[in-house]
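**Sequence with structure:**
===
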Amino acid sequence: MQPPPPEEARRDGPEDSQWSRPECQAWTGTLLLGTCLLYCARVSAPVCAVSMSQDFGWNKKEAGVVLSSFFWGYCLTQVVGGHLGDRIGGEKVILLSASAWGCITAATPLLARLGSAHLLFMTCARILTGLLQGVYFPALTSLLSQKVRESERAFTYSAVGAGSQVGTLVTGAVGSLLLDWCGWPSVFYLSGGLTLLWVCYVYRYLLSEKDLLLALGVLARGLRVSRRTKVPWRQLFRKPSVWAAVSSQLSSACSFFILLSWLPTFFKETFPSSKGWVFNVVPWLVAIPASLFSGLLSDHLISQGYRTITVRKFMQVVGLGLSSVFALCLGHTSSFCKSVVFASASIGLQTFNHSGVSVNIQDLAPSCAGFLFGVANTAGALAGVVGVCLGGYLIETTGSWTSTFNMVAAVNGLGLCTFLLFGEAQRVDLSPTHEAL
């Protein structure tokens, strides 16, 4: 009997391959920066949309095609990214994809000017960026489920997840200055170039060349799947706890996309004389410490002897339940200051989902957490696109923002109830069967 390949052997002994404390700290900081750069590249197009529209003569519909095209690609590679992370290692998937999206981001201004079809080239560049970034969070989930101790998992995931708010803030602030000083191409050059520098650092200091070549070899062989590495998807999706996690992740993603997309318009229309930097910056400044605090609190409660599932459900009560209360308040106030407070509280409290359902997926099936998170995040992204469109329809037909914020609360309430009723933290039994992917 031949021994399993190295990547399979590593998966079979997760306890032996977990990071030491110094390794965990180094990787947490590195991945936080990676998430920050991911969002820098992601929001470069929205930051530059007005300037690009002026240069290329795009109308609102054409600009909307470019901005939405990212999500067309983003929805397609979630499951693939998670499965690859489970097979060859999430850190390798992240490094390879970051190399590609960094190059595309840095080359975007050149691609946009290749010919007269600016809209086509820009749309294709954004679709490719979405395809490549779609693998990131599922691969990250797979990596942390294998490498981080359960007692430290919530804080690690929350700290890394805080990079999304940092990246949004950095690009919004620095990008605005670059637009004024150097023009919109400089925003893409900077975010793409920094990503490639980050890739070089990870490759040189945190990954061995042997491991990376091994991963490339597996990909070159077409990911020939042995029975021991197949995903037991029938067993997974027969478990109510798995559906509860998927439902809760779907709800949190959907409500986040709705608020992210419509809050700026809400403030501009409701408070025309307000300063844009206040409502575009303050909620994300609140979200960063909130995300870190949620992770610390979750790990502390578990270390004090509270049941893991009790802590996960408490985090979801805050992340989905309490955040919805503040979202509802947004539709019933005419004060700008109160609206900023309510929006900041709602966005900030949503980060508690990082220590709830996002980590719960790793509790249930660490060996295929990337695949499962990919499924849940795909559903959440698709639901988010639908929710954003439906929110616009409700605003247009009712003339009131209350209906949209009510929808956010309803979506969150459904996911929360499902998770409270059926959520578990006990590892799902995935004994080998013939029914596998």
Notes: Residues 240-270 form the longest helix (31 residues). Residues 1-14 have pLDDT under 50 and may be disordered.
